[in-house]
Design brief:
single chain; 468 residues; alpha+beta; 7-stranded mixed sheet; 5-stranded mixed sheet; 19 strands
């Protein structure tokens, strides 16, 4: 334990301070081409014709990838549901979806070539709209997750007060400083090599091997420094298309998104959360019913897991005898979504904690005291059937209130406002750990007594290199 508690310098600090740290966009290879993408301006349209012949004749253009280059299984990918095409085939499903990709000797040449690609489209009806909050037509529902405990009808009948509210959260872009970037090339042996900005190289390798019909040993993923991710770089975004363009061009290719394109590539899920809570007049929560709808965009990615991840904790970290929790993941004609610092949990937390404040205000109870009265305790059964262990949330909430000088809701509201105003709030949450999972590492001892550590952990600013 001699290393614990020591103040050490970051292993990646000197390179980053001097500007010598290499990111995916900094990789330069001999003969490298530059990729630009032609994107849809329609949220949903059928593609009648794609003609890239004029673009291919432009001096400096090496190749153009279109739907004509995609066949069979080599067209679709996805970590759970393989529903996302490498580029649009029969239709586009959101503004910004890639229709064709140009690889040229220079970026400005590739940009110019995009204007020469002819695309005939016909507008199509978007995913069916829903009437009211409840989902009657299951046409665009990817998945539904449900868990319950007790009998909410009985719980509501035993309640003194019932509160029903709807809370919304928008799509949010991760806004990592480094845009998505990938460099891809094929070795003469047939091995695919990528330098890419990703948080999950093993997952990228697995999905690319499946997409291309290769053993994983024939796909190598190299991750330079990553300039932020927050979940946006968890799934394949650029890698499938870059790999296919490189194969067709027989040259290395680099694809770096503009900031505008980043906003067309990944978001977290927007959500609408309807929450109904029955309480006693003293603030004891008796029953809670939740219906949450996640807007996952045009393709699934891992949204089925998001629905479960958020659904099973949508009642919050509270001792509630009767619960009925349901989440839906629905397709919309918007850019694909994915994790963003919580994997579906922040959306439902925003709802149940907002309602806790609303309930406290309506009942005239201090928001902190309302929470402390209902928070889970050591050994309590959770709605999923598990017994909770190592529960210290009440002590944590009390300590947090002490540190910020919490004076109680009523007392704080009575303070006169003059000049600057400082707001104070309390919120608690529960998040699943997503276990079981697995990881591995190898340590190789050298003849001179030094060691080499082999691991696929990614340094995205959190200090992984230093810790390892």
């Amino acid at each position: 334990m001699s290393s614990v508690g020591l103040d050490v310098s970051r292993a990646d600090g000197p390179a980053k301070i001097r500007g010598a740290a290499q990111y995916a966009a900094d990789v330069e290879l001999p003969g490298m081409l530059f990729v630009k993408a032609l994107r849809s301006t329609y949220p949903h349209a059928k593609i009648l014709r794609v003609d890239a012949s004029k673009a291919e004749k432009l001096p400096g253009v090496v190749t153009v990838l279109t739907r004509n280059d995609l066949k069979g299984k080599n067209a679709f990918f996805g970590p759970v549901v393989k529903d996302q095409p490498v580029l649009a085939i029969d239709r586009v499903r959101y503004v910004g979806e890639v229709i064709a990709a140009v690889a040229a000797e220079a970026r400005d040449i590739a940009e110019e070539a995009l204007d020469l690609i002819e695309v005939d489209r016909i507008k199509a009806q978007s995913f069916p709209a829903k009437s009211g909050f409840r989902l009657q037509d299951q046409g665009n529902v990817l998945s539904r997750y449900h868990v319950d405990d007790g009998d909410v009808a009985v719980g509501f009948s035993e309640s003194d007060e019932i509160f029903e509210d709807v809370y919304t959260s928008p799509k949010i872009q991760h806004a990592h400083i480094e845009p998505h970037a990938t460099v891809a090339y094929w070795e003469p042996s047939g091995k695919l090599v990528l330098y890419t900005s990703t948080q999950t190289p093993s997952s990228i390798r697995t999905q690319l091997a499946e997409l291309l019909g290769l053993p994983q040993s024939m796909v190598r993923v190299i991750v330079p420094f990553v300039g932020g991710g927050y979940g946006a770089k968890t799934h394949p975004r650029l890698e499938p298309l870059a790999a296919l363009v490189a194969r067709k061009a027989h040259r290395p290719v680099q694809w770096v998104l503009t900031r505008e394109e980043v906003f067309l590539t990944a978001h977290c899920q927007a959500a609408v959360v309807k929450i109904k809570t029955g309480v006693k007049r003293d603030g004891t929560i008796v029953a809670r019913q939740v219906e949450a709808v996640y807007d996952i965009g045009a393709y699934a990615l891992t949204s089925t897991n998001t629905g479960r991840n958020g659904g099973e904790v949508s009642g919050g970290p509270y001792r509630i005898k009767h619960q009925d929790l349901t989440t839906y993941c629905v397709y919309t004609n918007t850019p694909p979504t994915g994790p963003y610092r919580g994997f579906g949990v922040p959306q439902v937390c925003w709802a149940y904690e907002s309602q806790m404040d609303d309930i406290a205000r309506r009942l005239g109870i201090d928001p902190l005291e309302l929470r402390l009265k209902n928070l889970v305790r050591e050994g309590d059964p959770f709605v999923t059937g598990h017994n909770l262990v190592s529960v210290g949330i009440s002590d944590c909430a009390r300590r947090a209130a002490e540190v910020i000088g919490w004076q109680g809701g009523a007392e704080q509201a009575a303070r006169p406002l003059s000049g600057k105003v400082r707001g104070k709030g309390m919120a608690v949450m529960i998040k699943t750990t997503m276990t079981p999972s697995n990881s591995s590492a190898l340590v190789r001892l050298n003849a001179d007594g030094s060691a080499v550590l082999l691991t696929s952990s990614v340094e995205i600013g959190q200090g992984t290199l230093t810790s390892l």
